[in-house]
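#structure-requests
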Amino acid sequence: MPQGKKLQTPSKKPESSSITHEEEEEMLHDISKLQEQVQQMSWSQKLTEAKMNGMEAKMNGMEAKMDNLKVDLNSNLKTGMADLKTDLTNFLQEILTNGEKVAKETHDANKRNVNHDFLDSSVR
């Protein structure tokens, strides 16, 4: 209603309605149907909102799980890399140690061969 205008009440009582009893019953029935439809729409809207809230909660839960998985993955990756570095370091140290032993054994064998060769050449 526009501002400044007031509803005016009639100065006379309205004349009696010309609606039949059947028409009044039909109107009441239609009004009742409309009220039911409004009520169902309201329930449907509330149910939809509840489902949306449930879905939002599930999505938040999924986000939290994904964040935890990221943290676990990063932690496992760091641990795995540290273990790999340790294993590689141990492996390289073992290779170097074995290499030194092989070189020493080869040197010792060569030294013996030189001594044998010297002794052999001296005996002749």
